[in-house]
Specification:
It is a single chain. The protein is α/β, with parallel strands linked by helices. The chain has helices at 2-17, 39-52, 55-74, 87-92, 98-109, 152-161, 166-177, 187-202, 262-279, 303-311, 374-391, 449-469, and strands spanning 144-145, 148-149, 207-214, 228-237, 242-252, 284-286, 288-295, 330-337, 363-366, 397-400, 416-421, 472-474. It folds into two domains: 2-119, no CATH class; 166-474, 3-Layer(aba) Sandwich (Aminopeptidase). The chain contains twelve helices and twelve strands. An eight-stranded mixed β-sheet has the order 3-4-7-5-8-11-9-10, sandwiched between helices. A two-stranded antiparallel sheet has the order 1-2. The two termini are 16 Å apart.
Length: 476
């Protein structure tokens, strides 16, 4: 009985108390300890929210209320209630009888152990995870995230992130580098697009391709170049309740004509594909849609810009009308991944860069301070920084405001756009910190497991952020 009530409570409270179709950053499933429900303020909001819910969700909420009322009436003579006069709600904010039984039942139902709020201990200070971070609370303590009690939503995000597979990430990257540098306009580029599409289809996606033309740069003394056809592949996970809004997760699959483009940007492409694999698992749902785009022509300019030019005006249009289908859901945020593996520090006095990942390595999260949507992008960047603090296992994250030279730049004036990288693009990569950049040594064998782990931590950061923002749930 308690398990069934747990699922009812989980869906009802989550949908009703926190239903906001225009949200950019989700609130927690349960209120933090010490935030007391105020009946005059919160209960009218609760019932107004019910009226705005989809029919199926509204039925779940009303079912929960009916069951709760029966329980309350059945136990009315067993003991006094608190100031709310409604035991189920009282227990959610600190009661000890019904609520102390229910919270473990809910946590068991979603596969995450969570103590009742009053029993969560404060974690001791000390060394946290790797990557040179010190004097931070341990990330591995049960039921706490940075000293804050875990919510049930946190537990779902943790389980989704826990499905990331280090070997899978490496093998996807290894498979991609088998096509060499994947330079746009070449047969190896076309074969890589086919391979990427096959991977997405094997995980249950219906894929689409965006066709566009690209005009190569003119060269002095040569005839004017002729526009040439190009294409790129994408796939979409349709949201269960808000299909008309989406987060875009992107990387560019083309290289620059050197090596095998393992880091630039096979590492980002493999990350996007690994996230696509996990988020389309049969038991994973998201309230909002998520689109995975593997851009072409980033190295020469074209793929992301073509996507924005063709699709921007289609945002949020239901087609056919009344169908519930949105060929181009409204862009809520765009997250780009470009060069994820190498953070070995600055060159030494001899001009050489260390062959080992530096102890201070981190994931760089950048937004463009000059963008029209800079405020929204900054908010998204800091939210991802928080997700890294909570869910990444080895390397921390840093936020910067000089996003540049990658596909997210085409989106930055239309939605909150950020990019995740191994280094700051302008200050570090552009100053010689990465000797593999656009060089023949950008091959799979150049990189160590420590390098691949940095890429995996970027994947943990993005997966946690998008799972939280898009409303991921796990069906049992």
């Amino acid at each position: 009985m308690m398990r069934e009530l747990a699922f009812l409570l989980f869906g009802a409270v989550r949908s009703a108390l926190h239903h906001d179709p225009n949200r950019r950053v989700r609130t927690d499933l349960f209120r933090r300890k010490g935030d007391v429900i105020q009946p005059k303020r919160d209960l009218p909001m609760f019932f107004r929210s019910i009226l705005r819910l989809p029919n199926a969700t509204r039925v779940g909420v009303l079912s929960f209320l009916a069951v709760s009322a029966v329980l309350w009436l059945g136990n009315a003579e067993a003991g006094p209630t608190s100031s709310l006069g409604f035991a189920p709600f009282d227990d959610l904010v600190g009661g000890t009888s019904w609520g102390s039984q229910l919270l473990p039942a809910v946590s068991e139902a979603i596969g995450c152990e969570v103590d009742p709020p009053d029993s969560v201990d404060t974690p001791p200070a000390g060394r946290g995870r790797g990557g040179g971070r010190q004097n931070q609370p341990s990330r591995n303590l049960r039921n706490v995230l940075g000293g804050v009690p875990m919510t049930l939503e946190d537990c779902i995000v943790a389980e989704v992130v826990g499905r990331l597979d280090f070997d899978s990430y490496k093998e996807i990257l290894r498979g991609l580098t088998a096509f060499g540098d994947r330079e746009q306009g070449t047969e190896r580029n076309a074969q890589a697009i086919d391979w990427i599409e096959a991977q997405l289809q094997s995980w249950g996606y219906e894929t689409e391709r965006l066709q566009y033309t690209y005009t190569p740069r003119s060269r002095e003394g040569e005839p004017d170049p002729v526009p040439e056809p190009r294409e790129e592949v994408y796939a979409t996970k349709i949201g269960s309740t808000t299909p008309g809004e989406m987060y875009i997760i992107g990387a560019h699959m083309d290289g620059h004509g050197f090596g095998a483009a393992a880091n630039d940007d096979g590492s980002g492409t493999a990350l996007v594909l690994e996230l696509a694999r996990i988020l389309n698992s049969p038991d994973v749902e998201t309230e909002m849609s998520i689109r995975f785009i593997l851009f072409n022509n980033e190295e020469t300019g074209g793929g992301a810009r073509a996507y924005v030019q063709q699709r921007n005006e289609l945002q949020g249009i239901e087609d056919p009308p009344g169908s519930g289908q949105y060929p181009e859901p409204r862009w809520v945020g765009m997250i780009q991944h470009d060069m994820m593996l190498w953070d070995h520090g600055m060159p030494g006095p001899d001009g050489q860069v260390s062959p080992e990942q530096r102890r201070e390595a981190d994931v760089n999260i950048e937004f463009a301070a000059s963008a029209d949507m800079a405020d929204e992008a900054q908010e998204l960047a800091w939210f991802f920084r928080t997700m890294n603090d909570r869910y990444a296992t080895d390397y921390p994250a840093a936020v910067g405001d000089r996003m540049s030279n990658t596909d997210s730049g085409s989106f930055q004036n239309y939605t909150a756009a950020i990019s995740l990288r191994e280094n700051e693009r302008l200050a570090h990569t552009g100053s010689g910190w990465n000797p593999t950049w656009h060089q023949p040594i950008d091959v799979f064998e150049t990189f160590s497991d420590k390098d691949f782990t940095l890429g995996l931590n970027a994947a943990q950061t993005t997966l946690a952020g998008v799972a939280s923002l898009a409303g991921a749930t796990i069906r049992r």
